[in-house]
């Protein structure tokens, strides 16, 4: 065999090997498949953060068909929801009631993706009321009766009474959850959402997946795994 033929054969072998074992290592492209957040979210290593709003139709669609199946395929990662307080007439109150529900689930040892989750029940009650039933609760958060009606939609579904909710708002855990999300444009939830809107998924507190790059459940799970492997 000629020397040139040998080199060509070796080159082809290396190329094939790269396709088999090496493509996944650098398949994702920054700016096309993901973006780096302007600041790293603290204590988020090993997490998949989902920024969302109760009044976001695509957030609802993702939570119905995508979020849980994807997280089941990356079971070593922790799902962490971030509600966006700055979106929706009742965004602030949505964050408060969902933070309380999360604290209740944490105390009960219930996964936020489980059908028994108070967070999941409250979240889907708001989704269904707003998107399916077109409920707007008076569309004015300055009126106490409207706020109460909004809160009751979530609280009743989660089995949390109003007094318990109000007491929980003063606990350190709920305050910490709300502080981690942020209640204004300076918060991390807003920092995530302003890049491309919501829903938005962030891996390890720094890699935001471009929703335009998501093609399916398995592919999204693979993206999460690859981003998690990047250091």
UniProtKB/TrEMBL annotation:
Pfam families: DSBA. Residues 1-27 form the signal peptide. It comes from the Bacteria. Residues 49-222 form the DSBA-like thioredoxin domain. One of its GO terms (molecular function) is oxidoreductase activity. Keywords: Disulfide bond, Redox-active center, Signal. Belongs to the thioredoxin family. DsbA subfamily. This is Thiol:disulfide interchange protein DsbA. It comes from Campylobacter ureolyticus.
């Amino acid at each position: 065999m000629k020397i040139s033929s040998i080199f060509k054969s070796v080159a082809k072998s290396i190329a094939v090997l790269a396709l088999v074992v090496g493509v996944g290592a650098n398949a994702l492209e920054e700016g096309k498949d993901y973006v780096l957040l302007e600041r790293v979210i603290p204590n988020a290593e090993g997490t998949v953060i989902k920024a969302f709003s109760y009044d976001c139709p695509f957030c609802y669609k993702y939570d119905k068909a995508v979020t849980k199946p994807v997280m089941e395929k990356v079971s070593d990662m922790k799902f962490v929801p971030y509600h966006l307080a700055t979106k929706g007439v009742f965004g602030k109150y949505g964050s408060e009631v969902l933070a309380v529900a999360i604290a209740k689930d944490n105390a009960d040892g219930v996964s936020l993706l489980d059908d028994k989750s108070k967070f999941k029940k409250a979240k889907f009650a708001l989704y269904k009321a707003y998107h399916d039933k077109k409920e707007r609760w008076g569309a004015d958060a300055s009126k106490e009766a409207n706020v109460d009606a909004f809160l009751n939609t979530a609280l009743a579904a989660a089995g949390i009474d109003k007094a318990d909710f109000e007491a929980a708002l003063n606990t350190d855990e709920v305050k910490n959850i709300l502080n981690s999300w942020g209640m204004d444009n300076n918060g991390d939830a807003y920092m995530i959402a302003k890049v491309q809107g919501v829903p938005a998924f962030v891996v390890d507190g720094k890699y935001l997946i471009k929703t335009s790059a998501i093609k399916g459940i398995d592919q999204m799970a693979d993206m999460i795994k690859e981003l998690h492997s990047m250091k």
